[in-house]
Design goal:
By secondary structure, the chain is α/β, with parallel strands linked by helices. Helices cover about 25% and strands about 25% of the residues. Helix 1 runs antiparallel to helix 2 (about 30-45) and helix 4 (about 90-100) crosses helix 5 (about 110-120). The radius of gyration is 23 Å and the shape is globular.
Length: about 500
């Protein structure tokens, strides 16, 4: 934990000052310019008393403000708390209060009032605006810190990232430079890396995947090409014109890109398309690979600084969710309920260990007693390993459906549903059942807007055991997802009063 991230950007600016660090629309920012902006903001933060171990929150949409603040905080030895701009001020008050943030910063624009309200509701004294040029305009100064940081683990940490909260209250994962560097090096060893890399960031930068792009680009001298959000047509244009080498996507994003032009071939410059966020239709992957897309299915965690296991584009597999290769240095085990290793091919809980892991959860006095085992992390996700050590991810343990004593993994059923050409999106949840305890039901979004209802039960029976076949199929216009594209099954249950189709 002795490594200091404050040296990364200055070192890169010295070695390759004129290389592009960021690209935002028509604006290209060199590493020397990014360093100057970050240092200017760092000096302003110093003047208002922000120092090592302090937590500073940022509420930003994608743009230049977040990267500049991120690197300014590393210069100060402070900890960045990125906030999800899609949350309400009341929802934002939990991480702000839990982390005892000293300052909430925002960009000028529609998020400013949300940042002010969240700060008021959580009792944060300091509020202000920052610009992509590195300027700070305080509305309220933070009060002087009267005590040491609330956790020793925050000293020297880079970021405090709150889990999505799909089950229970979100928890703050403390990530140090040692985790971010190990993640960048492991990804580079598995997928390759070069100073010529141009990583298109069209997913939210406030997630660990977005921050990892910034860190990876800095460490290897590449460029992060920033989009304001996901726009399929803009992604296609930039893939054609901007020599993009890497991109991170979820299945629904890939589907929308291919819908822009079903014959759009990936340009030869594109070396890797990381694909995560849950089950992906095999037909979608087949279509993309047939058009030259270098698809790399991936499994990642906030608690592990992004990637845990990824299947490189050069490797093939009969299933989109299987054969994922652990990052070098990462160990994966599959555990049964007693904490013992499962036999090859048997499902159990995914356990992860290695240098990419977080330091711990904020406020966990016992280093995450319920989540750590032998200095590893019990993820709560279900999976299995094959003979070669490749990982297949099945589902969240909390999403497991037990029906008549049999285990049903929603992701497995969803993957089957997504093979039907009429199904664009699918989600599987459970309803109570007096006889079996629970039974699976499916929620699906049609790929075409017509009135024809396919026989999805028959389709499922061709590939699934009878107890896994949903007992009802609910047609939806959309499915609820988190900002990172993950399906929110708990929110799906709230829609069950709608008519069955």
């Amino acid at each position: 934990m002795s490594e200091e991230a404050r040296d990364w950007l200055p070192g890169r600016a010295r070695r390759t000052p004129d290389a592009q660090a960021l690209e935002w629309g028509d604006e290209a920012i060199s590493y020397s310019a990014l360093h100057r902006r970050a240092e200017s903001l760092s000096a302003s933060l110093d003047e208002v008393g922000i120092g090592p171990g302090d937590v500073v929150a940022g509420l930003f949409e994608n743009g230049l403000e977040l990267p500049v603040l991120f690197w300014a905080l590393q210069s100060r030895g402070a900890v960045f708390l990125p906030l999800n701009w899609r949350l309400t001020p009341r929802e934002l008050s939990h991480p702000l209060t839990d982390a005892r943030a000293r300052l909430v910063l925002h960009a000028d624009g529609p998020l400013a009032e949300a940042a002010r309200r969240a700060a008021r509701q959580s009792g944060v004294d300091g509020v202000g605006a920052v610009t992509g040029q590195g300027q700070l305009a305080l509305e309220r100064r933070p009060e002087p810190r009267a005590e040491a940081p609330i956790s020793d683990l925050l000293q020297g940490a880079m970021a405090l990232l709150y889990t999505s909260g799909t089950s229970g209250q979100p928890k703050g994962a403390i990530l140090g430079p040692e985790a971010f560097r190990a993640s960048a090096e492991g990804s580079a060893a598995l997928l390759g890396s070069s100073s010529q890399d141009r990583w298109l960031a069209c997913m939210p930068l406030f997630h660990v995947g977005g921050l990892s792009i910034l860190v990876r680009s800095c460490l290897y001298g590449g460029t992060a090409v920033l989009h304001a959000g996901f726009d399929a047509e803009q992604v296609v244009r930039d893939l054609q014109l901007k020599h993009i080498t890497h991109i991170s996507l979820v299945a629904s994003m890939l589907d929308r890109i291919l819908a822009v032009d079903e014959f759009f071939r990936a340009p030869s410059t594109l070396r890797c398309a990381l694909l995560g966020g849950g089950p992906t239709p095999g037909s979608l992957i087949d279509q993309a690979v047939g058009l030259g897309w270098p698809i790399a299915p991936t499994y990642g965690l906030t608690e592990a600084a992004s990637q845990v296991a990824t299947r490189p584009p050069a490797l093939s597999s009969s299933s989109p969710e299987s054969g994922l290769v652990p990052l070098p240095g990462t160990r994966i085990r599959i555990l049964d309920p007693q904490g013992l290793d499962c036999p090859v091919g048997q499902a159990g809980e995914i356990w992860v260990a290695g240098p990419t892991l977080m330091r711990g959860y904020l406020g966990s006095s016992e280093q995450g007693k319920d989540h750590w085992l032998e200095e590893g992390f019990c993820t709560g996700d279900m999976g299995r390993l094959d003979e070669e050590g490749g990982l297949a991810v099945l589902d969240r343990r909390d999403d497991l459906i037990v029906s008549g004593g049999e285990n049903i993994y929603p992701a497995e059923v969803e993957a089957v549903l997504l093979r039907h050409p009429a199904v664009a999106e699918a989600g599987v949840t459970a309803i109570p059942d007096d006889r079996f305890g629970a039974r699976p039901v499916a929620h699906w979004v049609p790929s075409e807007k017509d009135d024809e209802v396919p026989d999805l039960a028959e389709h499922c029976r061709a590939s699934l055991a009878g107890f896994k076949v949903p007992v009802a199929f609910y047609r939806r216009d959309t499915l609820p997802r988190s900002a990172s594209g993950k399906l929110l099954r708990r929110a799906l249950n709230e829609t069950l009063r709608q008519p069955v189709c």
